[in-house]
Every structure is written in C-alpha cells, then in structure tokens.
Design goal:
Two copies of one chain form a homodimer. Chain A starts with a helix and ends in an 11-residue tail after the last strand. By secondary structure, chain A is α+β, with helices and mostly antiparallel strands. Chain A has nine helices and 19 strands. Chains A, B: This is M24 family metallopeptidase.
Chain lengths: 368, 368
C-alpha cells in the first residue's frame, strides 16, 4: 500500500509546485488519511521540501479501523501535551529551508493560521484550497472495494431489521439497533447518524430519530451506512407498515422510484453533475413536486460521507469513471410523510456494464 | 427562559462594546445555543447594532433535545440553499450601519473569514476570542439541573450494565449497549463516544472500544455520559472481573481512588486549577507514577463535554462556585491495564456542603 500513498503525495506535490509552493501542510483529517494512510487525532501531514512527515499530538493508534501510517513516512510525535501539530509542522518546514507552504484555508481557523504564521515569520502561507479533495474524487479499486464491503454490511443490517417486528418500536430504538447490527457485521461504525423516520416524518432527508413509534399504515424510511476501513457508504429505503399500502402511498413510491431510476441511469462518465440532478428533478417536477425538494439529488462518498461531487442544479463539472456517488431523491408531504430511495453507485463506462450498484437491497415497495 | 438568554447576550454585548465592537457574530454551535437557546445546523447568532438575529441555513428543529430559539430573538432563515449564515449575517450587520463586528477567530476558518470580509468590505472584523466560552464557565442552577439529570441517567445505564453477564462480551458491544440504555432512560444521546476498556486496555483515557472480549481477572474500565437538554456529563469507573482481585489490582485501585479523592476534596471556590491537578498528581507521583499520566486531571463540562477550565499542571486561573468539572485521574500499566475513576462534580462553597457529586455510582472496587 505504501506506493499508493506515495503516489498520491507525488500528485499533490506536483500541483503544489505548479502553484508556486515548495511545501504543503495538510490538516483536514480525511485528507491526512488519504495521503498518509492514517490520521491520528489532530495530526497534520507535512509535504516537506526535503522530507514528508506525519506530525501527531499522540502516537498513532494501531487499530485497523484507524488505518496505519504509510511506513515510508516519518512519524513525528510532539513531546509536550497540548501543542498544535500544525504549528510544529510549520516550524519544521521552515527549518527545512522552505520559504512558503500551502495550507488548507478552508479547514484551518483564523487563530491557528495566525499561530502558524507567528512561529515561522519568514514563511509565506499560501492556500492549498481543495486540492486534496479534488484528488479524492476518483477512487482506485482498493477504495471502491472498501465501499463495496461497507455497502454489503449496510444491506445485511437493513435486511435483518426487516425480518423483525417493527410496529410499536420507536425511531430511536430502530436506529440504535441498526447501528449495533452494522458493528456486528464488521463495520468500523456507522458512516453517519442513522436516520429512521416514521409516519409524518418519513421521507425527510437526515431526519433525526424521535420517540415516535411505528404504526400500522405508516411509511417507514430508513437511511444508514457503514464505515469500513475508513470508507463510508449510504443506503436509504422506504417501506410501508401493514398489509396493503394506500393508493397515495403506491403512487408516491412509484414516482420517487422512477425519479431515482432516471438519475441512476444517467450516471455515465462525462455526464454533467447537474444533468444527473435534473434527471430526477424532472420526473418529480412533471408530477407537480417542485417546491420543498432536497437541494441535491446525490453526492460523492468516500473517506467522508459527503464529498465532491454535489449532484445539484447549480453544480459545475462532469462525472468521471470510478466516482462513487449517492442517488437519493425524495418527496415529503408535510403532515403525511413521504418517500426517499437512496443508493450508492460507482460510475462505470457502458463497456464495463454501466453504473455499479453497491447497495443491493430491493427497491420494491415492501409491506412489512 | 427568555430572560436568561437575553441576560447572557447583554453580558456579551457589554464585553464587546468594552472591546470597541458594536456588534458580534457568534458561530461556534455551543456558543450559539448558549446565547440563543438553540443552534440549528450552521446557524450563527448576530448581536447586532440595532437588533439581535439568529441566522439559519435551515429552519430550527422543534425537538426538545435541540433546544428552542429564544422567542424574543428574530430568526432569519436563508432563502437560497448552500448559503453561509455567517456571510449573510455580516451583510445584515453592515446594513444596520455597524462599522465593526467581532467574530470567533478560533472557530471560523480562514476561507469563511475572508468570505465575511468580502461581502461587507467596509466592515472591520475584530476578534471576539473566547468571550462566550468564558461566560459559559459558571453555570446557573437551571444548567446544573440538566447536568444532574444527565448524571442520573448515566448512573442508571451503568448500574444496569453491572447487573448483566459481562464475561465473553466485546468492548464494542458493551459500549453500544450502554449507549442504548442512555437513550432508554431519556438522554438526548451519549455525551461522547462511550469508552469500554478491558484487560490490557483498561485505564486508558478515551480508549476506543475494540473486539476484545471481557475475561476473568480483567480490569474493566468504562467511561460514559449522557446529554440532557444539550448538557453533557461524564462518569468513569473501573471494575474487576471475577471473584477476587489480585493484590496488584487492589493496590492500584486504592492508589487511584486516593488520588481522585484528594482532587475532589480540593474543589473549593478560589482553588487554583493547577492545585486540583497537583492534588491528584502528587498522590500518584508519591507512589512512583509520574510518567505516562494523562496531561490533565479534569475539565469543565456543559454544552460541550470538554470545556474550560482545564485542571492541568500549566493551567492558569481559579475555580468559582457553580463550575461543574470532571475529576478523572488514572494509571495505565502497559501490557497489564489500569484504573481510571471519573466523576462530575459542581464546585460549591463549604457553607453549602462543599463539592456536589453528580455521578453517584459507588467507587468501591466491585468484583463482577
């Protein structure tokens, strides 16, 4: 794996040098992990002028879920407690003779940025911007394999829940049970706070579980994901509780399903982000649902659950192969509830069979 | 409750004006909640020149766990998705005729700070520093009452765990079960990631649960807390698994207990933070444990689990009455395990009975 991390750092260094900085200081945890193999608490990665260093406040943890620092990388642990690794790294890079270093201005606070500036007054601080986030968009097969295993775990956890009695249980208990099952099946942990929404709450994106209990006739929408070796996936499904769905429930479900399928089918290399969004939005809009929709139809996933690209009306850019994204349109009718259907897929060329569906739980409307 | 939030804002406004700023823009979530009663996602509080405003990206959630915005405060929800409430607030305060606004430089990123500066070029951005964090140190009785209920919930969850069979279960499962029980008993959720540490892991501060199973003869150390109405408390205990603890286990336990008691007894109004720390550290040091100790003996708790003050060797300042803190010394012997004992207490004058212990689970060495 060492070569992978070294190659990623080489790509970043090239971008940095092209931008006029000899060195870079990466502080955002997911970016540090991407380039160094692990991101111990508060650690920063220094792409130095002479040497790369992982600068840590605490020694790296050895648990597999936390990753393992690339062995070719020197690890520097601060000797005094309470020190800021970013400030120490600036000091180290100045000592290496660098006259400028690019930092992540979208992550560093103003106060930390100032502290970095004062420890090495001769050092010019440039902006690295989202350079690492951009490198992270296209995944390699090792990364996709972690997402695939995470998706299998989420499918298993969800499948087991469907076999249990649901009526009378609260949203909060169902969410906790799903999270326990994720861990049972080998997840590092949940990829994000599990959402369980019943009745009038169903169909709300990111609904935080309440003490409402599942009732006969409810829509039940669930959104969960597993983290596996740091990689986070997402699945969302909506079910109906009881023997026979009402007509409005069947209609709404079919509509959201059609919107979700349209967006999934538009996932091809070269497709504009906004076109994927509008594929789903057009189906919902044709049926009269334009207001109150989620501002996005999907987003990238990886070391964070919400990464670039954003599949949204104003997003600029086009999909590449090997970009994993969610497709998660939904409709919520205030006071009645609604439907969300959410998959994680990997963009693949048509010659390779088109988009690869990672979350394979059925999307038929199940009556539970 | 409205008067409470208005009074807090008045105190902050006085500090701000004394610092030369007519307005303040508070962005750190716990600070926003403290001053406004609620902190919807990404919301900022504007202490304006003419009017105070809660500026939100999404409408406030109505769940009790999230708090409820102070009714005397105007809530402004951004109309376009993806906007930054901090930038919008800067625009609003400039429109009110303010020429400067104090911002939280320890919380805002460099990129957000720049965006705020560019939307209102005539507006001078000053630094609010930790002014709100300082106001939050001393709690009122309403806040302490939330911590007390949270502590009761944590005591209950821990008590139930002790009645169950532990041998053979993994750290991760025990942690998940504790978190479920916290929610069962009415917590908003866990106050922080529950730590369960067995055998060689026991006694490690902040140990992330692994798949190691509880074995006969182990030390088992547990650290958990409940969030109740936003307030977070903490309790940690160490037990021994099996019928009779080994001599080294009894000795180590008694030592850490003595250190913890010494620190608890030093919690009086006017005591220096560092003296509380050294009370515990001195007991451990006299027995030869000086290296590898945690850098702090305790810390404040409230809307965040780790607040000011820090009870540490280099901390400056003195305790006031009505400051809730943890007291959590520990010793870990590499390869063997160790002991941590952690309580949440409120500093009270001797005339009121001295420090108020919120976490009342026994600190006898229980053999389970």
């Amino acid at each position: 794996m060492s070569e992978v991390y070294a190659a990623r750092r080489t790509r970043l260094r090239e971008r940095c040098n092209a931008g006029g900085s000899a060195a870079a200081l990466v502080s955002r945890a997911a970016n540090v992990r991407y380039l160094a193999g692990a991101a111990p608490r508060d650690a920063v990665l220094l792409l130095g002028k002479r040497e790369d260093l992982l600068v840590c406040a605490v020694p790296p943890d050895e648990r597999p879920a936390e990753g393992r620092p690339d062995e070719t990388l020197r690890v520097h642990v601060l000797s005094s407690p309470g020190g800021d690794p970013a400030v120490a790294a600036a000091d180290l890079v100045a000592a290496q003779g660098a006259d400028s270093v690019a930092v992540e201005e979208h992550h560093l606070t103003v106060a930390r940025h100032r502290a970095i500036g004062s420890v090495a007054p001769g050092l010019r601080l440039a902006d690295l911007g989202g350079a690492v986030e951009q490198l992270r968009v296209v995944k390699d097969e090792e990364e996709i394999s972690c997402l695939r295993i995470g998706a299998e775990i989420a499918d298993q956890a969800l499948g087991e829940l469907l076999e249990s009695i649901l009526v009378g249980r609260t949203e909060r208990h169902l969410a906790l049970e799903l999270e326990r099952r994720l861990v049972d099946h080998g997840a590092d942990g949940p990829a994000f706070a599990t959402s369980v929404a019943t009745g009038p709450n169903s169909g709300l994106r990111g609904h935080a579980p309440t003490d409402r209990r599942v009732e006969e006739g409810d829509f039940l929408s669930v959104c969960l994901g597993a983290t596996y070796h740091g990689y986070r996936c997402e699945i969302g499904r909506t079910f109906v509780i009881g023997t026979s769905p009402a007509d409005w429930q069947i209609e709404l479900y079919d509509l959201v399903f059609a919107a979700q399928r349209a967006a999934r089918e538009s996932l091809t290399p070269g497709a504009a982000y906004r076109d994927v969004d509008s594929a789903a939005r057009h189906v919902l809009g044709s049926a009269g649902y334009r207001e109150g929709l989620s501002p996005l139809t999907g987003h990238g996933v990886g070391l964070e659950i919400d990464e670039d690209p954003q599949l949204a009306p104003a997003a600029m850019g086009k999909l590449d192969a090997c970009v994993p994204v969610t497709v998660e349109p939904g409709v919520h009718l205030p006071g009645r509830g609604g439907v969300r259907i959410d998959d994680t897929l990997v963009v693949r060329p048509e010659a390779d069979g088109g988009p690869e569906l990672l979350t394979i739980t059925t999307k038929e409307l199940l009556a539970l």
